[in-house]
Amino acid sequence: MLPVEDAPGYRVLDQAGRGGFAVVYRAYQERLDRVVALKVLSVDRVDQRTMRRFQRELQLTGRLTGHPNVVTVFDTGVTRSGKPYIAMDFFENGSLRDKVGNEGPLPVPDVLRAGVKLAGALAAVHEAGVLHGDIKPQNILISRYGEPAIADFGVARVVDSAEVSATSHAFTPLHAAPEVLTGQPHSASTDVYSLGSTLYHLLAGRPAFHNPSDPSIAPLMYRVLSVDPPPLNRPDVPPGLFEAILRAMAKEPGQRYASARAFARRLREVQAELGLPMTDLLGEDPGPGLSMSTVPRRHAGSGPPAGT
């Protein structure tokens, strides 16, 4: 049993989960008398420059506090042993990976609805000047109202810049864009790729390039770099949706959607083509394109208008 990390001002209640580079505790924040999720990153010797950048990204993301599809971050800091932590809203319903694990592949209308909301949230984040860098089903939490919400902003950069603790799990790049695997930096386009890969996972019940008979890293990287995503063996998945996901997952960044907002618009078009209700894309439309319902939502201190 690993020792529980000690974060000043928080009392750990129990361990809620463990991921590749972090342990999540359910904790009590004494000053504000509330239960939070305390995520402690399993990295050692984080330099001050990396930590300042991490905190700045979380501050920028804080502009979107109240956004229904972005997990609210309350606080950041370091534990007494020097590991970075994030205190955030506690989501008792788990992640989209948990949901797929429990229920299997999700219905097409549910995936489209989640896709529009998540692509819109990602667009809002990009417009606030932040990249995510690690979009995947386990980083999308489910609120008590059933809403998907993106978590873990900035974590990928801390992990990239720090020495990973020997206690952390091995990294598996199941949803990473090809250029990230070849050493290129994260970008808005790599986030779009990872979101497309996530939607594929929701429809297939597994990541596009995962092969249970050969899960080792080298063959996986070859498939990500060189092989097209396999067809979805689901007759209920319309060609338009599969094509939209394939475009988001294009090997070349220039062949993907120009922005997360453009991806959201295309998913709304697919909803319309199927006769489904079109999920609202919140926020002002920054340019010409498909007409969408807009709900102006400004927050104090916000920069560009947020959109989901």
Automatic annotation (TrEMBL):
<keyword id="KW-0547">Nucleotide-binding</keyword>
<feature type="domain" description="Protein kinase">
    <location>
        <begin position="10"/>
        <end position="274"/>
    </location>
</feature>
<dbReference type="InterPro" id="IPR000719">
    <property type="entry name" value="Prot_kinase_dom"/>
</dbReference>
<keyword id="KW-0418">Kinase</keyword>
<dbReference type="Pfam" id="PF00069">
    <property type="entry name" value="Pkinase"/>
</dbReference>
<dbReference type="InterPro" id="IPR008271">
    <property type="entry name" value="Ser/Thr_kinase_AS"/>
</dbReference>
<dbReference type="GO" id="GO:0005524">
    <property type="term" value="F:ATP binding"/>
</dbReference>
<dbReference type="GO" id="GO:0004674">
    <property type="term" value="F:protein serine/threonine kinase activity"/>
</dbReference>
<protein>
    <recommendedName>
        <fullName>non-specific serine/threonine protein kinase</fullName>
        <ecNumber>2.7.11.1</ecNumber>
    </recommendedName>
</protein>
<keyword id="KW-0808">Transferase</keyword>
<dbReference type="InterPro" id="IPR011009">
    <property type="entry name" value="Kinase-like_dom_sf"/>
</dbReference>
<keyword id="KW-0723">Serine/threonine-protein kinase</keyword>
<feature type="region of interest" description="Disordered">
    <location>
        <begin position="278"/>
        <end position="308"/>
    </location>
</feature>
<keyword id="KW-0067">ATP-binding</keyword>
